[in-house]
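Protein data:
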Amino acid sequence: MELLQAAMDVTLCRATTMAPDGATRMPLPIRAGRIGASLAARAYRFDLRDHLIFPGLINAHDHLHNNAVPPLLKGAPFPNSYAWMNAFQEHFAEPAVKAALDVPKTLRMRHGALKNLLAGTTCVAHHDPWHAAFDASDFPVALLRDFGWSYALGWPDYGPPVQQSFADTPKDQPWFIHLAEGTDATARAELAQLDQMGCLAANSVLVHGVGLREQDIDRVIATGAAVVWCAQSNHALLGQSLDPRRLYEAGRLALGTDSRLSGPRDLLDEMRAIAARGELGHTQLLALATTRAASILRLPLRGSLAPGSRADLVIVEDRGGEARSLVGIQRGNIRAVVRDGIPWIADTDFAEWFAISGMEPVAVTLDGRPKLMARSLADPALIDLEPGLELMAAGQVHERDVAVEAQCS
């Protein structure tokens, strides 16, 4: 036990740490689950030469319980989100949809969180009522806890009343609402309505915002409000998305996925598609999913590798050149996803890090690649919900030819 307690301090050596403001080659100390300000004398040292370390990603908008619900495949593009929601009412009668919704919500919540974790997302803003499943110590991701929300102006019975919810939310906490994103005037009208209601302020976080004009974006920036951009969901449902550049430059934009019900598989797929369309560059996308999201969501200890931050990490091999980015990485190519200084899913040669941290792993395959994953996530019913994730039989684990060295100078 004394060895395990001492080994909780870890130093990651010879890797390049990557952040939106630049890269460094200094050793990265992890002390008691946080990024350390100095190296500990008794730290367990891992040699991660030829690796990159990124901050854990932040998904600023997801509906965790909807990620195994089959999407609506007909009718798109819709003129606005209300038209999509009305069309979805008939979709509820589909046998596959009914079966997905019959899965206990606790399990569906864990599945949505696991989906995020597998792709390097360690913190999520869930835009729906708080659920008891989130309080479990082994919940796969950290969650935004202190916030207010309403669903949408046009669906007043779904969530808390807009004005009351806004008034009840402390001004140092974010307050979320969906705009009626679309190609018609609905989103613009709702922004004006929110403004008239006094619900557009520095803590207001507007989800989507498709259809906002230049003067609408001016107003968002002037009030200090922000927008969460779910580009793939917007393109799938509406055939277009907002132009992110002015909101990005003003620091008033974060990135979300909006669940697989309408969005991509995960935040990595979201970033890859945006880059392919040329809407933002790799460094900008990393900022949206780390430092920018942390600022907008009032999460000072997330999305950063600064001393004192939570030791949430994404570790990948250094491919060199323009490939020194998370954009373009598939989730199966991530070497390790670390939360609070402990690996939760990693390649098999990270077994020693699992051991010294006290995290018991099980063998799985992720998109055909052998991995180790925290045993607390190995519920067969949970794994069955995630395409591409499978439990491995005993004896199937194969070490990489070159294991991670548990020592470095």
About this structure: The first helix runs from residue 2 to 7. Confidence is low (pLDDT under 50) at residues 1-7, 398-403. The chain has 14 helices and 21 strands. The chain has two domains: 2-56+303-391, 58-296.
